[in-house]
Specification:
This protein has 13 helices and 17 strands. It has helices at residues 44-51, 74-80, 96-101, 116-128, 144-157, 174-191, 202-208, 226-229, 232-238, 274-282, 299-305, 320-331, 348-354; strands at residues 4-15, 18-24, 27-29, 33-37, 59-64, 67-68, 81-84, 162-166, 194-198, 211-215, 220-224, 245-247, 252-254, 264-267, 287-293, 308-312, 335-338.
């Protein structure tokens, strides 16, 4: 693991004189993406704005490398730390190229005149963020998603060792979310910088992060690699999920099942039942699902949406007891829908089930 590029010690953050979070200890190392996750209002943005000196610290310290951030001039800090936070940027009549060029000001003299080398870095940052075609456009005419990419280009232009990004995927469609986060990952991996980022999209946080920090609203909760920390049960606890569920294996949230006695029995497997489960759920029709092996791709969706699910152990043929329970449930329904077209040794019982007469 690389050296610490940014760290906090006993940091207390909040507004005015009232701390919201105390004893915030973060470490961002070379080649590492640290992601803050947690519910709205938990304090993720407050932490990042405090690190970026947009809010005054109420206690503790922030270090860039071995130096206290408080001891660095704005220009020196900007050479080491690039910042992208939500809201607030309203430049008057500036083109996108000019705004990205502002990222070079920490390296210019008092007059802020950019050299040819500076402009080359501006154009390189815009190429990296796929914003070259916006160069002559005024920033205030852009969509929110285009603005995010321009602001990222400005941060990249600073050639920082650390990037601080507060909800950078806000306003972006799925294509541009993936593009922006891919750019971020490449910067971290190829240039050896560090990044601390807040995200609302847990599925993206699971895929992107080297380390996650869970912010609960009054303290820092669990910290560690996402595959260890972001379990289904902990996510439901962290966000206070009472209606519905979250499956950390697939990075997906599900609505609660429709209440009531099942009216339809769906025979699925290998992904074939999922579209039917979702259609019935949208139509507010309670249904049962089976017979599914617990390692089948259909199983977590059925377990979340179905009023009742009949399941069998992984890698085991469907036993007679399980079949009889499924047949009894199927006969109690008004309709049986079979989504399978092929049957193998393990699920031969589902062929019999599909032939049950209601």
């Amino acid at each position: 693991m690389g050296r610490d590029l940014l760290r906090t010690e006993h940091m207390a953050v909040g507004y005015g004189k009232i701390p919201l979070l105390c004893e915030v200890e973060l470490h961002v190392r070379q080649g590492e993406i640290v992601t803050l996750v947690g519910p709205n209002g938990a304090g993720k943005s407050t932490i990042l704005r405090s690190i970026a000196r947009q809010l005054r610290l109420l206690g503790g310290s922030v270090y860039l490398g071995e130096k206290s951030l408080a001891s660095l001039s704005p220009a020196k800090a900007a050479r080491q730390m690039g910042v992208l936070t939500t809201g607030g940027v309203r430049p008057e009549l500036m083109t996108c190229e000019e705004l990205v060029g502002c990222g070079r000001y920490p390296y210019t003299g008092r007059l802020g005149i950019l050299s040819r080398e500076d402009w080359n870095k501006v154009h390189g940052a815009m190429e990296l963020t796929h914003t070259q075609d916006l160069a002559e456009r005024r920033f205030d005419t852009l969509s929110d998603g285009q603005r995010q990419r321009i602001l990222l280009a400005r941060a990249i232009c600073q050639e920082p060792e650390v990037l601080v990004l507060d909800e950078p995927t806000t306003f972006l469609d799925i294509r541009h979310k993936l593009e922006l986060l891919t750019i971020l990952r490449e910067l971290v991996r190829e240039r050896g910088i560090g990044a601390v980022i807040s995200l609302h999209e847990l599925d993206l946080a699971q895929r992107l992060s080297d380390y996650v920090v869970c912010v609960t609203g009054d303290r820092i909760g669990r910290c560690g690699p996402p595959e260890e920390i972001l379990t289904s049960s902990y996510i439901e606890e962290l966000y206070g999920i009472e209606k519905g569920s979250y499956d950390a294996r697939f990075g997906g949230a599900e609505f609660p099942p429709v209440k009531g006695t099942p009216k339809v029995f769906v025979i699925g497997g290998n992904g074939s039942g999922i579209p039917v489960y979702r259609r019935l759920h949208r139509q507010n029709i309670p249904f049962a699902a089976g017979i599914l092996h617990v390692n089948d791709i259909d199983y977590p969706v059925a377990r979340a949406l179905a009023a009742e699910t009949v399941a069998e152990a992984a890698f085991s043929p469907i036993c007679e007891e399980t079949y009889e329970r499924a047949e009894e449930l199927a006969r109690s329904c008004e309709e049986v829908i079979c989504c399978l077209t092929e049957f193998g040794t393990m699920n031969e019982a589902n062929r019999r089930l599909a032939q049950v007469k209601i």
